[in-house]
Write a structure and sequence with these properties.
By secondary structure, the chain is of the alpha+beta class. The protein is built from eleven helices and ten strands.
Length: 399
């Protein structure tokens, strides 16, 4: 039986790059982050160190604690409660407000009562450790580092990072996707998807208007236009001398095989998540409008229907089925899902390749409604009949 690890937003390959920095302070912060993460990984003891931190019902009530630089949650000071006043600490308020937006998003969009759908309390911890370049979900609460101030700023300040980490809790309480290889990459992708949707919902952005980036506002604050990951363009989230080029693949033929070890990113869970990320983006823009109303509903229902060891193929098949359940078999939404997975080279089981609509060069899913498709097919048939008639006439004229 595999022990569930803590789920961190920053993958080990990025921290490894920081170990190569010419700046000794950046190297030390990266080393400290890796050592602390290694200490916490897999044991989940951190969540048991706080008395009364059990996952008890509480109508999604928020509480934020201040670790004040300690690398443990034990002794963290109460900083803000659901009924209390705002704090003078920006990080405390950012964590508190972010948890509220996420709670309201899941309640209003999916009628989900907090992380476990039973009103689970939402506890957040800020100022964890010193220059800690990460944020994580440990199974019962959110923990945020302040970053090193150069490559990372306060991680509580990013709504999509908040949404990403809390969604690990939703996944744990639904499909329970195992955190390694393809199921682990799906786990990471689900968090990226709903982390992005939380931000889009808050900003009331359509699929076309959204930036589809994760962590852009807390990573490399001195570099504009980059992000930890891009659902729209996996492999193109960043490209700079400090970190090199974003390694995420955007299709199955580029899948990266890594060892199922902590330093191998548990089989590449943060890397290969680019493939299902791109599929979601294609489905969202193919359906159009607000992504949480179309593709988001499909992905959420698919998550609830998935098993812990689901592969990309399994999840693709489930999203296709759920699109039919929600919007109708043969609907444009189901066609968009089919095209989206075809765009990342995953063929829906039992569906001929000829039925997958093409993905255009700019990444948008090309699709037609039923009447337009029928008209096109009739036009093609008429053209063939006309051509055959001309050939017969020509043949008669030559005899």
């Amino acid at each position: 039986m595999r022990t569930r690890p803590i789920n961190c937003i920053i993958p080990p390959y990025i921290l490894d790059k920081l170990l190569e920095s010419p700046d000794s302070d950046i190297r030390q912060a990266a080393l400290d982050t890796l050592l602390t993460t290694a200490r916490l990984r897999g044991e989940r003891a951190v969540r048991a160190s706080i008395a009364g931190a059990a996952a008890t019902p509480g109508d999604g009530r928020r509480t934020v604690f201040d670790c004040d630089g300690a690398a443990s949650l034990r002794g963290a000071a109460l900083a803000r409660t659901e009924d209390g006043p705002a704090s003078s600490d920006t990080a405390v308020n950012q964590a508190f407000d972010g948890l509220g937006v996420i709670r309201d998003f899941y309640q209003e969009v999916f009628h989900r009562n907090s992380i476990d759908d039973q009103g689970m309390r939402l506890d957040g911890y800020v100022h964890f450790d010193v220059q800690f370049n990460n944020a994580f979900w440990d199974g019962q609460q959110m923990v945020f580092g302040d970053g090193d101030g150069q490559e990372f700023s306060n991680l509580a300040g990013s709504l999509d990072v908040n949404g990403h980490e809390v969604t690990h809790g939703v996944t744990e309480n639904t499909a329970g996707l195992e955190y390694h290889n393809q199921s682990g990459a799906l786990n990471e992708s689900i968090s990226d998807v709903f982390g992005s949707l939380v931000k889009q919902w808050k900003l009331k952005q359509t699929a076309e208007e959204a930036d589809w980036q994760i962590g852009a506002d807390v990573w490399t604050p001195g570099i504009t236009g980059d992000a930890l990951r891009s659902l729209k363009a996996p492999g193109q989230a960043y490209n700079n001398p400090q970190f090199g080029k974003d390694p995420q693949p955007d299709r199955m033929s580029k899948f990266i095989h890594l060892p199922d070890t902590p330093r191998g990113d548990s089989g590449g869970v943060h890397i290969n998540s680019g493939i299902p990320n791109k599929a979601f983006y294609l489905a969202a823009v193919g359906i159009g409008g607000f992504a949480w109303e179309g593709a988001g509903r499909i992905w959420y229902d698919a998550l609830r229907a998935s098993t812990a060891d689901a592969t990309f193929q399994d999840f693709a098949d489930t999203t296709y089925q759920k699109a039919g359940d929600l919007f109708g078999v043969g609907s444009s939404e189901q066609a968009a899902v089919l095209a989206a997975w075809a765009g990342v080279e995953v063929q829906i089981s039992g569906v001929p390749k000829a039925r997958a609509f093409a993905v255009s060069g700019n990444g948008a899913v090309g699709r037609e409604d039923g009447l337009a498709a029928l008209s096109r097919q009739l036009g093609e048939l008429n053209a063939k009949v006309s051509g055959l008639a001309r050939d017969i006439a020509a043949l008669k004229g030559s005899t």
